[in-house]
């Protein structure tokens, strides 16, 4: 079967904000401790305790921002516990994630050092659930205020003279659940209050992100939008917060039995893909509500938690959310990115949960040997990185896309998106069909494309994954199955595959 599409190379869509490729690191399981941070005395090469192999691998992804310290943990985190000499920092219990002790050895200074090593912007989630307005306000002062003030002096005492630039600031997390079990109206009031006292110091301008909805809770979004303006669908008039977040996870079964990350049936594979594709409906729903109050799209939508959530690996701590990562996860990621690119006029940031050792990770580290494994999802982020800050190009269809019924929905089994940046075109294509290949034709109208280079990420089965013993089972390979002739791109997509086609663009 051939699927025919057209890309108008001379008609630009919205810019794809690089922050759609953002990340998330929570004090959860082995994400921070053992993942990012091993401590200065570790035999694993490190800088101030931060693993250098992890930093090196992530630098290759050009990760634009890192969200921290949670998640649910953010609303029980008290930042003052994580500054000063490490040996003197108080110990707390991480009540959300395994009930383990948190020694606070990774705190504000360590996180900012990590961001500097990664070349990523920090995105800090403040504590609304169990903190105070004063505590959050002082954290902003500690981080960003220059000159003489109580918190700036405290920061200097702890070894950092200059303030850090911090733009992204979260006003709590999942306020409807672990962040305080509030109603939308209660939280909206809190967000206005907390937002008021998070000040801009000097040139540092905060971009405040209100804790948003769970999945399709559009009423939550409406309440938060209403707080920014007058009653009814009228223009936004205030800036207690500049963006709203939303969280949406991809499961292959019900919450009580999410399914295994590696042992799954073909039916479960398709259910997972259909769930992943639902992100389009979720983002469209929130964007529609926001459009009503903010037709000029000045308020950002931030999907600051997304990704697969499966049952933990057998024998691991249920509170640590450690799961393997297969080719199926890679396709979940590629589908999400296509949808993100299409929503680039409203969606300003997205953060996969989570970067190392938790949920849909880029990197898995072995707790015994410290060996590091790059996951199939990692490779999608790498293959797609030229979409960051690129200008999106719409993919129009000329023939009905291949599809199949999945439960009570229809899954389109070929997913695509395209963009250009600095004279280079990048087209991403995924074939979600587990068994059938597809030929895709792209009429490249309005320009010429030369120097075509293609990569493919696929494997024998969707269950294939990487381990310390076999780290390259799923990895990108140069691909000969994409050719451009007379302005037409022909791509052969094997079953369960992700392909990128890059080329030089001219008029
Ligand atoms: O990412 C894991 C958890 O999922 C986060 O802590 C929370 O915000 C969400 O429920």
Automatic annotation (TrEMBL):
GO molecular function: alpha-L-arabinofuranosidase activity
Polar residues bias spans: 460-473
Record keyword RNA-binding present: no
Region (Disordered): 459-480
GO biological process terms held by the UniProt record: L-arabinose metabolic process; polysaccharide catabolic process
Known catalytic reactions: Hydrolysis of terminal non-reducing alpha-L-arabinofuranoside residues in alpha-L-arabinosides
Family matches, as Gene3D superfamilies: Glycosidases, Golgi alpha-mannosidase II
Keyword entries, A-Z: Carbohydrate metabolism, Glycosidase, Hydrolase
InterPro entries linked to this entry: Alpha-L-AF_C, ASD1_cat, GH, Glyco_hydro_b
EC number(s) from the headed UniProt entry: 3.2.1.55
Residue ranges occupied by any Alpha-L-arabinofuranosidase C-terminal domain in the UniProt entry: 304-497
Residue stretches in coiled coil: none
Highest taxon listed in the record's lineage: Bacteria
Record's keyword annotation contains Hydrolase: yes
Family: Belongs to the glycosyl hydrolase 51 family.
PANTHER family named among the record's database cross-references: ALPHA-L-ARABINOFURANOSIDASE C-RELATED, INTRACELLULAR EXO-ALPHA-L-ARABINOFURANOSIDASE 2
Assembly behavior: Homohexamer; trimer of dimers.
Protein's recorded name: non-reducing end alpha-L-arabinofuranosidase
Taxonomic lineage of the native organism: Bacteria, Bacillati, Actinomycetota, Actinomycetes, Micromonosporales
